[in-house]
Amino acid sequence: MIKAYAKSDVGKVREINQDCFYISDSLDEIQLYMLADGMGGYNGGEIASNLAIQTAKSYIENNFNEIEKDKDSIIQLVASSMEYANMVVYEKAKENKELEGMGTTLEICLIYNNKAFIGHVGDSRIYRIRKEFMRKLTQDHSYVQKLVREGTITQEEAAHHPQKNMLMKALGCNAFVEPDVMVKGFLKDDILVINSDGLTNLVPQEVIFNLAKKDIERAPKELIEIANQNGGYDNITVIIVKNI
């Protein structure tokens, strides 16, 4: 059985919450967990994140029963839902001058048969906690992460880099997007933490690990409180999912 809890907060600085999330009810046939962190002037980011979540969710729900339930088919479904959401957000931005340049990150996690089928675009993150170890499953599509991979800067320097919010890839900014897709084991007692960068920019990983492991129901609220105490410079969204 899967249990999930989530919370989103505008933070201390922003006027509008451009994060959007969706979590399945534990009795739903399709166990789906999604997070989008929007960007764009006016209310563009809010529109992009909501549109991406609604579009990808509908796509998965409408097509899930039509596919073979093997690993490759489910991963392809997740990828296709993100490509479709990208097209919808991109077309919407082209229709309206005020929405030009809007985009969003998007994390999708579809849980089926003790596996997590993951799609990822942007710099929101998915972690998996297993026993005493927390592992980041996604790679940030950011400029500083590219510099880290190339060995130009260290991971510590990346945390304070002035351009750390610059994305190399986002959903809705170009006609086509290539999401990262993967499948990971999601066994009994495993925990997934899905969050926007408003959390990870302000709260250390070990704090996230300790609170998520201690109490999945209270952790989203407690983590958001810590992020706000540490400045709350951005919208903050936390989803915690556990295989009970």
Topology of this protein?
Layout: E1 2-9, E2 19-23, E3 31-39, H1 44-63, H2 71-95, E4 103-104, E5 106-112, E6 115-121, E7 125-130, E8 133-136, H3 143-150, H4 155-159, E9 180-185, E10 191-195, H5 197-200, H6 205-214, H7 219-229, E11 236-243
Antiparallel strand pairs: 1-11, 2-3, 3-4, 3-5, 5-6, 6-9, 7-8, 7-10, 10-11
Helix pairs in contact: 1-2, 6-7
In a nutshell, what does this entry contain?
With 244 residues, the chain is α+β, with helices and mostly antiparallel strands. Helices cover 34% and strands 27% of the residues.
Report on the architecture of this protein.
Helices cover 34% and strands 27% of the residues. With 244 residues, the protein is of the alpha+beta class. Helix 1 (44-63) runs antiparallel to helix 2 and helix 6 packs antiparallel against helix 7. The radius of gyration is 17 Å and the shape is globular. The model has no long low-confidence stretch (mean pLDDT 96).
